[in-house]
Every structure is written in structure tokens, then in C-alpha cells.
Amino acid sequence: MNFSLSAEQQMLQDSISKFVQKDYDFDTRMKLVKSETGYSQDNWKLFAELGWLMVPFSESDGGLGGSAADLMVVMEELGKGIVIEPFLATTVLAGGAIAKAGTQAQKDTLLGGIMEGGLQLALACSEPKSRYELANVATTAQKNNQGYILNGHKAVVLNAAAAHKIIVAARTSGNANDKTGISLFVVDAESEGVAIQAYRTQDGGRAAEVRLENVLVSADQLLGTEGDALPVIESVLDRATLAICAEAVGAMEVIIQKTVEYTKTRVQFGVPIAKFQALQHRMADMFIEQQQAKSIVLMAAMKLDQDSADSAKAIAAMKSLVGRASRKVGQEAIQIHGGIGVTDELDVGHYFKRMTMIELLFGNSDYQTQRFSEL
Amino acid sequence: MNVDFSEQELAFQQEVRLFLKEKLPKDISDKSHNDLHFEKDDFVRWQKALAQQGWAALNWPVEYGGTGWTPTQKYIWNNECAIAGAPAVIPFGMSMVAPVIYSFGSEEQKKKFLPSILNSDVWWCQGYSEPNAGSDLASLKTTAVSDGDDYLVTGTKTWTTLGQYADWIFCLVRTGGPEVKNQQAISFLLIDMKTPGITVSPIYMLDEGHEVNEIHFDNVRVPKENLIGEEGKGWTYAKVLLTHERTGIAGVANSKVALEQVKELAAQTNHFGASLMDTPAFSHKVAQLEIDLLALEYTELRTLSDVSTGKAPGPESSILKIKGTEIAQAIDELKMEIAGNYALPFVDEQFAHGYEGPTVGQGAAANSAPKYFNHRKTTIYGGSNEVQKNIICKAVLGL
Predict the structure, then answer these.
(1) Contact A372 B283 (CB under 8 A)
(2) Cα–chain-centroid distance for residue B210?
(3) Does the pLDDT value for residue B360 go beyond 70?
(4) What residue numbers bound the domain in which B29 lies?
(5) Do B397 and A293 touch (CB under 8 A)?
(6) Which residue range is the domain that position A222 belongs to?
(7) Which of A145, B63, B93, B201 is deepest in the core (most CB within 10 A)?
């Protein structure tokens, strides 16, 4: 049993931590949030140079090893700065699907592109009516002699507007909710028939509704085996869930620090409000929740790295707990800050917004609790 | 980073399982599994079996008879004991007074007291709390007035768990006068319960069990050789003890076993024509507890891992205490919910060993309400959960 970070993980953590502290203050982030692209391409290049974009990939794919524990370390640090660069969408979601299902040629171009920092991607698996059910795919891919014709509507596709290519889950056979018959396609964002309705997200990021109308894709754009994409999507989503939970653990750590600091400086009734036990115990509770979240994320990362039979169950447990913890810690942070906490000008509210959206992404706590019971 | 047991640890686990299978008396494990009452003799028999194996003193230094186990081994031990239904070792001698004696006591005191604790020949109880000194323990009023080679001890100690069996009591007493600051007036004194002037009166808990006592001291003559260390240092000694390694304080292993029991009972319980376990409202609660417990297990493992790399266990033990007791209490609640209207019958005699009359209610659910009532104590004792939060505020958050 060993819970210490390896020397490599320690270095990775230090380098991201330094970036967040020195180059990613709140004002910088807010400028990026309001910018046209919604993130900094210079930062993205820096991520590539520093090797961070290689973290999620195995050495045989040209990456740094791709362990879940490494991913956890990266995301926890990014969470401390609520970094909005599309690391999750490009490397973990889309990159994860390619690493899992791609041919050597697809990996060479696409993963190579990601790691060099030149390629932005998105994974489009949910739909307006699917909510959290990954098998609930109504988008169709009809085979013809040139390849496939895609029709459908993909919902809340993270990073779709910036993506050069969008990986689309579509049904090559069967009915919505069938476990088989789902396939993945690497679709050029510029393809004819692809309409992207881009928007900002509540937490400062970018996403889009992606509508596909008779989009023609060639057979070599199929990612993985036709009809067998569901296990790929499930496994990618499990890893992405780990990523956002680790991010939440980092965000919680910072929001607790900020709350504690604030109560030491805010004077009411002639004393710093930190003196009030009514607030102290709530901050102790926030700390306990965050520690529990950190523990369960660690557990889930280890289960994924062991390729354990109950890793999906571990992910469900993790998301259930981290979702509840994020909600409680976030709400308390705002309440303890008082009026300033509900303004746009203070960073705390933005941590709160990201933590809230993390709970709702990839299965909220109730959904994951039920999934835990059923697995 | 990994959570695997090494080859040696797996072998140790096997050794522990074999030992428990051979040496844990069947009547004792039966009592655990069926939530029957333990008697003094049950504890003593089990602890003597442990002593014989050299496994009685989990955390003592090896030179005094401790196991020398790593944190991981202790974790394995606690888990296996819970599964096997081994009763917890009564902590007052083994893990409360003994560490104070071997850390701060004289050579004579070590020789006199440690072997009989190790072998469970002497039963100890704890004299800390007083009627007016609960969470604010340092305000205790029991005095020890110097009288030649002795102290004369007068005052009242309370919540003395299993004090009715005790041969000895360790007490925090006030040796300094009112002018001395609270903490610096407190000394750590060992008192023979047979000394004249001591009376023990029972306090009955909500389950009507006689578990705790109030102990009155009326000019009790205690030789000064029973003082640990120096006068006025008692508070420091007691505090050092509290930061000592407290493996198993979270009760994870016991809660795991109890949750499995909940699942089994709920699966056999009717609810709107289906099993209670298949009812989403109920299964959701079970799942959330199971998840919280999983997180707590890893919080404990993180603490153990820190300890094994040489870091002192810090305020994490407060998290373990708070969450551990909250989860255990929530499991008690579920058991009572399962019992439903059968939580009402109070047929205490059926939980005594050897009862052969007709039973009322089913299995552990039948005893759920008394357990629920009794276990409300867990968030209050050992430093109430509010005091634990104060510790977190001070030590971690710097408030």
C-alpha cells in the first residue's frame, strides 16, 4: 500500500501548480472566458510544450503512460485554478476515444495532433433526450457505397466550436437504447451539413449543439468496430468522470482556503467573523467533505489503474460522493461569504459555478448512486 | 501509488484468519453476530487468548509486548476481527492507560502495571469526565491534596464505562490550588478501586443497560508513588495519548459488516409487496452510506499510509471520528427502519446468552432500537464531534 506521489507525479504537480499560481490569476481567466475563442491558444501551446497533453496517453501511443493516477494529479491542479482550456474535451474525451478504439493510422494523426498542441477535438455522445444514458443514441449513420450518412442532433458538446474534428456517436443499427449498434465517427467540423450552435457554459467554458444533416463521412472515418462503440464510450466517460472529480477536489480545496481567509478579514459585530463558531463548524464540515472526496477519487483512480472488475462501480461511488460534496462545499462557501459571494466580481462564485456544473456532468449524484446500487 | 497488499501482508492476512478461526471462542462470535450482550468474562477470555498469541497490544512498543505491526497489518487485523465477530479489546487498560505508563511512568510503575494489563489480569477504567466537566474537561474539580506520602482524593467522576468491573482507575485530578491555571493544576493518578472511600453507582443508559457509572471519592488515600510523572503535567500526558495512533477509530470494518447485515435484512423485509431493499428510497440511502463508508476507508488508509512514511497522525483522526460515528449511527437508524413496528417490543432477556424462550422480532433488527438509543453516545464521547470540529478549525484551518 503506497499513496505517495511518484517523483514524476510530483514534478507534474509542481509544474501545473506553478502555472496556475503565476500565469492564471482570476482576472486573466475572466478575460479568457469573455474572449472570442474562450481559451488561450498560447496556454494550449504551453501545455503541449510542457508535456501535459501527453499525460492521458500510453507510451505506445507516444504519451507519458496514461495512468488514471497521473490524470488525477493533473486535473486536481487544473481545478485549483478552474482552468478553462479544453483539456477535458480534447485529450480526455475525444483523445480517450481515439486511444481506445482508433487504428494505428488514426492514432498517429489524431493523437499526434493533440499532443503537439495543434488539434482541438470534441466528443459528441449525448443528445437532447438521452440525459445521462449513453446507449440512448437516436442519431443515425446510414451506410452507403461511399461511407456513411449521418443525421441527428448531439447535445452540449464540449469544445465543439473550437474543435477541428468532432467524434460523433451514431447508430448504425438497432433502436435508441440498444446496447449494440452504436458507432463512432471522426467528423470534420467543416463538413457540409454540420451546423454548430455555439454557446458559453455556466462555468465559463464553451459548448455547442451540433446538428448533422446528411453529413457524408467516409468508411475510414469510422472509429473502432462498427456497432461496438458503447463499451468504448462507457470507458472513456468513466475516465472523464474521474478527471472532473479530481478537478472538483482541487476546486474545493481552493474555495475552502478562500472562505477561511475571508472570514479572518471580514469584520462584523466588531470581530472577524472567523470567531463565530456557527461559521467555524461549517468550515470544518467543508474540509471533511473535501477530504472524503479526495479519498474516494484516489480510490477510483487506483481501481481504474488496476483494471479492477469493479472499477465502474468505483467511478459511480466517486461521482455520487464528489457531487454531493461539491454542492455542499460550494453552497456553504457562498453563504459564508455573504453578499460578495453572489457577485460576478469575486472568484469564489466562479469556483462555485464550476463545481455545480461538475455535479451535473456525466451523471449527477442521484443518477450515480442508483448506478452504484445496480452495478 | 497502489493499494495492493504485499506478499507478506497477504500471508499475514491468512495467518490472522487462521488464528481467528481457531482461537476466537464460538460462543463469543455468536454473540457478536446476533447482537447479544457480552459479559465481562467474554472480554477477558478473548483478551487472554490474544495475549497468549502476543497480539493483545496492537500499538505498544515491542519492548513492552506490543505487536510491532505496520499500519497496514493493523488495518488487516481490524478488518478480519470485524468479519469474524471478535469483540473489541476494552481500551481503558490496553490503549488508554498503558501508553501513558510506558511513555511517562517510572520503571517501577511499568513493571507493576504493564504485564497485568497485557495479560488482562487487571481491569482498568477511566476517571476523566465529571458531572460539570464534559467537553470542557480541564475545568475538572476532583482534588488530590497532599498528606505526607499520600494524596487525599475527593470528588466525583462520571461516565465511567464498565467501572463496575474495575480493579483500578486512572484519574485526572487537581493537585494545584485555585490560583494555578486549569491545565497546569492537573495531575495523572492511578487509584486502586478497593481503597476505602470509593463508591460506584450505576447509571442506566437509554437501553436500560448498566454500562457506565458515577464514582465518588471521599478522602480516598492514594500513595504518591501512584502519580504518573510530575505533578501538574497530567493534562499534557492525557493529550499526548489522544494524538497517539488510534487505528480503527473510524470503525470502518464494523460498519461494513453492519451494512451487509442491513442489506440482508432489508432483502427479507416486505415493503409495498416488494422487498425493502428493492425500494429506491431505501436502497438509495444504503448506497449513499456504502459510498460514504468507502470514502472513509480510504481516508483512513491515507492516514495509515502517512503514518507508515513517518508522518504523525494529525487532525485526520478527527475526521475519522466524526464521519465514522455519523455513518455507524445512520446504519443503526436503517436497522430500526427495517424493524418497523417490530422495533417497539422491548424484550431484553432474549438477547442474553442461553435464552431459550420464544423470540420476538427477527435477528439484529429486533435489537435495533436499543442499539440506536445506546449508540447516540458515540458522537458525544471521546471528544464530542463538535469538539473534533474545534480541533479541525484550530489545527487545520487556523481559525
Answers:
(1) no
(2) 16
(3) yes
(4) 7-89
(5) no
(6) 122-227
(7) B93
